[in-house]
Structure formats: structure tokens, C-alpha cells
Amino acid sequence: MDLDFAFLADAADVASSKLYVMGGAFDTIYVPGFPATHALLAVVLRLLLGPHDLAQHALPKTRALLDRDHHQRHDRQGDPTPGSTSS
Fold first, then answer.
1. Is the separation of the CB atoms in 25 and 9 below 8 Å?
2. How confident is the model at residue 66, as a pLDDT?
3. CA 70/CA 73 separation, integer angstroms
4. What is the pLDDT of residue 80?
5. Secondary structure class of 3 (helix, strand, coil)
6. Which of 81, 76, 50 is nearest to 61 (CA)?
7. pTM (2 decimals)?
8. Which residues contact 74 (CB under 8 A, 6 or more apart)?
């Protein structure tokens, strides 16, 4: 398994085997102070897998983000999860 690329973006999605990125490849977020929040952030990466990787590893597909209390906050598209609370 090799990491082909990884970067941060404002938003990202995959549709029809194509990667769509909005506001991608930044490395700094400026904030007036801490603690701070960022309204929307996507971590974009692509892993290159060979036949040996697929036979040896079960790869989980993470589609949810968890808050610090391990409650689901957002689904795959970044929409608030029904029943979650905003902070």
C-alpha cells in the first residue's frame, strides 16, 4: 500500500470515479485565537493498493466524523447527522 497524495481542502467528493475538490491544497489556517473552529474541512488522500494488499488487509470505509466525545457529527457528505448537536 502506497500513499499517492494527501492534502487538506475546503470540500471534496468522489462521483463517477472522479475526485472533485474545492479550495484544496492549503497548509495553513489563520485564526484570531484558540480554541478555534474551521467550518468545513476535508482530508483528501489516495492510497494505491496492489493485489497483495487487497488479499492481506480488510480496509474500513470511514464515512462519519466523530466529535471529541465520540458522537457522530457529520455523514460522508459533511451534512449534520440527524440528532447531533452543534457546538
1. yes
2. 61
3. 9
4. 45
5. strand
6. 76
7. 0.58
8. 64, 65, 80, 81, 84
Stretch (H or E) spanning 6: strand 2-15
Pure H helices in 22-74: 51-56
pLDDT digits (tens, 9 = 90+) for 26-50: 888 888 999 988 778 888 888 888 8
Question: For position 63, what pLDDT does the model report?
Answer: 55
Burial of 13 (0-12, 13-18, 19+ CB in 10 A): middle
Neighbours of 64 (CB within 10 A): 11
Q: How far apart are CA 52 and CA 8, in angstroms?
A: 29
For the chain, how far is it from start to end, CA to CA, in angstroms? Answer: 37
Spans of all domains in the chain: 2-55, 57-87
pLDDT tens by residue, 53-76? 777 766 555 555 666 666 666 555
